[in-house]
Amino acid sequence: MEIKHQQISVELGEKESEGIYSNLALISHSPSEIIVDFARVMPGVPKAKVYARIVMTPAHAKLLLNTLQENIKKFETQFGVIKIVGKEGKEIGFVRGSNDTSEELKKEN
After folding, report:
1. What is the pLDDT along the chain (109 residues), one digit of tens a residue?
2. Minimal CA–CA distance to 35: which of 44, 24, 25?
3. DSSP alpha helices (H): ranges in the chain?
4. Rounded CA gap, 55 and 35, in Å?
5. How many CB atoms lie within 10 A of CB 37?
6. Which residues contact 60 (CB under 8 A, 6 or more apart)?
7. 3-class state of residue 5 by DSSP
8. How big is the CA angle at 73 (ends 7 and 43), to the nearest 5 degrees?
9. Domain definitions of the chain by residue range
10. DSSP label at 88?
11. Could you give the CA distance from residue 26 to residue 51 in angstroms, rounded to a whole number?
12. Neighbours of 26 (CB within 10 A)
């Protein structure tokens, strides 16, 4: 079976083009979807605010993962290895979780 690639035009609105800064991602899933909440944590503030929630199918999440890995390799080739700063063995900023990441956050803080 031959896969035909379709070229699409993507519209980026003015508000969306500004982007949203996030230094914390909370990821949960069900059998049919992956949910990523992008939040911002400020030093000295015990509460994070979610600024965007992305819901996608597991297949699209895996495609996103592959594309991110590919782009990080290209970035590191051009600019050098990205260093992760923080305590060894502890997740910093982005949290890997099960269906309820809020419990993991409580444990980490």
Report:
1. 777 888 999 999 999 999 999 999 999 999 999 999 999 999 999 999 999 999 999 999 999 999 999 999 999 999 999 998 875 555 545 555 555 444 444 444 3
2. 25
3. 14-17, 58-79, 101-108
4. 5
5. 19
6. 34
7. coil
8. 105
9. 19-108
10. T
11. 11
12. 21
d(CA 102, CA 109): 11
- In contact, 108 and 101? CB cutoff 8 Å: no
Token pair of 2 as six digits: 């031959």
Note the pLDDT of residue 5.
Answer: 84
Q: How far is CA 54 from CA 27, 61, 73, in A?
A: 10, 10, 24
Q: How far apart are CA 34 and CA 59, in angstroms?
A: 9
Would the pTM of this model clear 0.90, i.e. be above it? Answer: no
Residue 109 token pair? 């803080």
- Tokens at 48, concatenated: 């994070």
Q: Which two tokens stand for residue 82?
A: 């990205």
